[in-house]
Design brief:
The protein is built from 4 helices and 7 strands. By secondary structure, it is α+β, with helices and mostly antiparallel strands. The chain is globular. The two termini are 29 Å apart.
């Protein structure tokens, strides 16, 4: 699904929802699943995220930068979403996009849906961020493939 502010990709992964969820709720594993190549390391990995938790990531897209992420949705083995927040002064322009993973048991495994939602992005930068939708969709497809590789290895 793609619309003006949301892009989603789906993949049936031949694994249980709890196996997949375990990857998603551990920030240290985000480097392993990242299909964009931008995640460099988790600054607060090795723990299981809960609703309301914050976790940091060191990133690189051309230049190095860091993000703070807040868990805004969490239903065990069904859904997790976090909002990515940029450091000041970028908070005034580019901050607030939401990354959501939804897991649904289906025949043959789990339907995994990843959604990039910029309806929560700061207004001034939202238009520029929209231009990243095509590349983001390709990166998300690679992320779901990596998740499958990890849970079926």
């Amino acid at each position: 699904m793609t619309n003006r502010d949301r892009v989603s990709v789906e993949r049936v992964v031949p694994a249980s929802a709890d196996q997949i969820f375990d990857l998603l709720v551990d920030p240290a594993r985000h480097l392993d699943i990242d299909g964009s190549g931008t995640v460099q390391r988790a600054r607060s990995g090795g723990r299981r995220l809960r609703l309301g938790d914050s976790f940091g990531m060191d990133m690189k897209l051309g230049a190095k930068y860091s993000t703070r992420n807040e868990v805004v949705e969490l239903v065990e083995n069904e859904r997790i979403a976090w909002r990515t927040l940029a450091p000041f002064p970028l908070t005034l322009l580019f901050t607030g996009r939401t990354w959501r993973y939804e897991l649904e048991p289906v025949e043959g495994g789990t339907l995994v849906r990843e959604t990039w939602d910029i309806s929560t992005e700061a207004w001034p930068g939202r238009q520029a961020v929209r231009g990243m939708a095509g590349q983001t969709k390709r990166n998300m497809e690679r992320t779901l493939a990596r998740i499958e590789e990890l849970v079926t290895a």
